[in-house]
């Protein structure tokens, strides 16, 4: 890992990538998402303040434990402008994220535990499939893993109208056939 002399206060995107371990494209992406910022030189090159290294480390650590970028951005937005997250910031935020992560772990454990049942079925058509029909949400209306899409009232009315028109046309056809036969 290349060392950057202390007297250098700004880093190029290449230097930031080399020091942080993040790809240049990831750094550009972080910047578009508002996670890090840069200034532009007169030659339109990006320059990152040295503290951006810690911000990138903060973002990558949060990502590794499964925190979405939007949540990370919200956390960084709470910090005073341009301030780098400190150890205390990480402790406070990670404590807040712990409950969310614990819930995700519980959900993943439930999915893992029920996966064998689904594989045993093979077709995902159990009357109460715990993976595609959690808590049997659709069991009252239908069996299997089909998700029922509720049609809007307008769609239902249009379908009923077309059905009525089709039935009326069929009725007329039958009458015409009956009239022609006799």
Topology:
Elements: E1 10-11, H1 13-20, H2 24-32, E2 39-40, E3 46-49, H3 52-64, H4 69-77, H5 87-121, H6 153-181
Antiparallel strand pairs: 1-3, 2-3
Can you put this structure into words, describing what you see?
The protein has about 180 residues and is mainly alpha-helical. About 55% of the residues lie in helices and about 5% in strands. The chain has 6 helices and 3 strands; from the N terminus they run E-H-H-E-E-H-H-H-H. Strands 1-3-2 form a 3-stranded antiparallel sheet. Strand 2 and strand 3 form a beta hairpin. It starts with 9 loop residues before the first strand and ends with a helix.
User: How many beta-strand runs?
Assistant: 3
What gross morphology would you assign? elongated
Strand order of the largest sheet: 1-3-2
| Biggest β-sheet description | 3 strands, antiparallel
Find the structural class using helix and strand composition. mainly alpha
pLDDT average, as an integer?
Answer: 76
Oligomer: single chain
Strand content: under 5%
The H-and-E topology, N to C, reads as EHHEEHHHH
How many helices? The count is 6
As a percent range, the share of helical residues equals: 55-70%
Distance between the termini: 97 Å
CA radius of gyration: 30 Å
Low-pLDDT parts are 144-152
């Amino acid at each position: 890992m290349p060392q950057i002399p202390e007297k250098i206060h700004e880093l190029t995107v290449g230097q930031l990538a080399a020091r942080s371990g993040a790809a240049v494209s990831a750094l550009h992406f972080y910047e578009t998402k508002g996670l890090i910022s840069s200034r532009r030189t007169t030659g339109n090159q990006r320059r990152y303040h040295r503290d951006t290294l810690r911000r990138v480390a903060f973002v990558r650590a949060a990502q590794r434990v499964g925190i979405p970028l939007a949540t990370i951005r919200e956390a960084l937005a709470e910090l005073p402008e341009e301030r780098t997250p400190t150890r205390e910031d990480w402790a406070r935020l990670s404590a807040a994220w712990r409950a969310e992560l614990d819930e995700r772990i519980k959900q993943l454990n439930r999915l893992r535990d029920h996966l064998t049942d689904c594989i045993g079925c093979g077709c995902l058509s159990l009357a109460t499939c715990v993976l595609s029909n959690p808590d049997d949400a659709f069991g009252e209306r239908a069996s299997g893993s089909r998700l029922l899409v509720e049609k809007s009232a307008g769609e239902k009315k249009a379908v009923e109208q077309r059905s009525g028109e089709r039935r009326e046309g069929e009725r007329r056809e039958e009458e015409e056939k009956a009239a022609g036969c006799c």
